[in-house]
Design a protein that fits this description.
Blueprint lengths: L10 H15 L3 E7 L6 H8 L4 E4 L8 H12 L17 H13 L3 E5 L15 E5 L7 H7 L11 H8 L4 E4 L2 H11 L6 E4 L17 E5 L4 H21 L4 E5 L12 E5 L4 H5 L4 E4 L9 H8 L4 E4 L15 E3 L4 H13 L1 H30 L10 E7 L4
Length: 401
């Protein structure tokens, strides 16, 4: 995985951690091979995996030369695709292979799972009798174009469609985090499939239902990425004043590292990092997700649903969860600022409406989780030693952002 499991606070870390905890709960032995491309809490990870099961691999952060950086800068000003893209294996180092082969020779894994397509080359370090899974998290083929179309600066990794498909074909099974991406991946791979595509979305922790507060507060939980910070800036500029006209003492609570990326506004309360999401959700009447762009699935929205929070979201914010639209989620068009304000105000004003949406959200999250767990368990039965004590190697190959 391009990220560790700990410390928490980011959606992709939570996705990896909950997937691993599910596999462990089913009785499998899980090893985690981690290349330190971003800060990690080694002590917490050692406690999570147990003695001898966390493997801290050697890696030197790859940096482009100044000449390449300048070429990229000029190319991006001209909106040239190549200036925003990377080779599929640009962040992978051949020295990783020997370390993975040594681990396999010593431990003999039945399953290997690699996080993110740009680390898919790690799958080639394992023999063909190992079941090879690729956990995609997102679609990275021409990813930069989605940012440019939304008027945003492209972030992180983007590659060509052909390169991404090459990464897919290194796996026996490609795990898509939501159904629309699974459909797109299948269409792009064509028939006959050289690998299978299966939806395995974010798995949810077992949580207790939170009783939303009756106070006039909404909450947003997220990390400090530009998508989240720009969404909150737009909400405070376009939606917040409309709610205040109806509810003069309305406040928006922010939780998570997004607090560091958003400037101060009157009526905005920053909770910072919270140890327990239930403590944050319990202070608000409504959970909001006003993002206007993104890929994958919104993990913090799923978390809020699991806690039984009534949720108001944009269409983009509900990506991958369309089946629950306007049943378990109150979904608005991305730029329907007046509608968003009216939905939040209506929920704050009505305890019965909050209860109805909260109960429906909780039921939908339970249904979602059961479906995704079933898909993952089915995958694991394909391993060569599925009927015995199977060891699952989750190769977490990280990258720095």
């Amino acid at each position: 995985s391009p990220v560790p499991t700990d410390a928490g606070g980011a959606g992709n870390r939570a996705r990896i951690a909950t997937l691993i905890e599910a596999v462990k709960a089913w009785g499998h032995e899980v090893h985690f091979a981690y290349i330190r491309m971003e800060p990690a809490d080694r002590g917490a990870m050692e406690a999570r995996f147990g003695q001898g099961r966390l493997h801290w691999l050697h890696y030197t952060l790859i940096r482009e030369s100044l000449a390449v950086q300048w070429l990229r800068r000029f190319g991006r000003l001209a909106r040239i695709d190549a200036a925003f893209m990377h080779r599929l294996d640009a962040w992978y180092q051949s020295g990783i292979d020997a370390q993975l082969r040594e681990l396999h020779q010593r431990l003999r894994f039945e399953v290997v799972c690699v996080e993110y397509v740009f680390m898919s080359k790690a799958l080639e370090a394992f023999p063909s009798d190992v079941l090879k899974l690729l956990d995609t998290h997102d679609s990275f083929g021409m990813r930069h174009r989605r940012y440019l179309a939304a008027g945003k600066k492209p972030q992180w990794f983007s590659t060509s469609l052909k390169a991404e498909e090459l990464g897919f074909k290194r796996a026996n099974v490609v795990m898509a985090i939501q159904s629309d991406e699974a459909r797109q991946f299948r269409e792009r791979l064509g028939l006959p499939y050289q690998c299978e595509v299966v939806e395995v979305g974010h798995l949810l922790e077992e949580v207790v239902t939170v009783t939303p507060a009756s106070s006039p507060r909404a909450i947003f939980v997220g990390s400090d990425n530009p998508i989240n910070s720009s969404a909150i800036d737009a909400f405070m500029a376009r939606v917040f004043p409309l709610i205040r006209k109806q509810i003069p003492d309305f406040q928006l609570l922010l939780a998570g590292s997004v607090c560091e990326a958003v400037k101060d506004y009157p009526g905005l309360v920053k909770l910072g990092f919270v140890d327990e999401l239930s403590d944050a959700f319990g202070q608000a009447a409504v959970n909001i997700n006003p993002v206007h762009m993104g890929t994958g699935i919104n993990i913090k929205l799923l978390d809020a649903m699991a806690y039984g929070m009534p949720c108001v979201t944009t269409i983009t914010g509900a990506r991958g969860l369309e089946r629950f639209g306007n049943k378990a989620l109150w979904v608005l068009q991305d730029e329907d600022y007046a509608g968003f304000a009216q939905a939040v105000s209506a929920l704050i004003a009505s305890a019965s409406l909050r209860e109805r949406y909260g109960n429906a959200a909780r039921a939908a999250a339970i249904q979602w989780n059961a479906s995704q767990q079933a898909n993952l368990r089915t995958l694991l039965t394909r391993a060569p030693a599925a009927q015995s004590n199977m060891r699952v190697d989750r190769v977490a190959l990280s990258e720095g952002r």
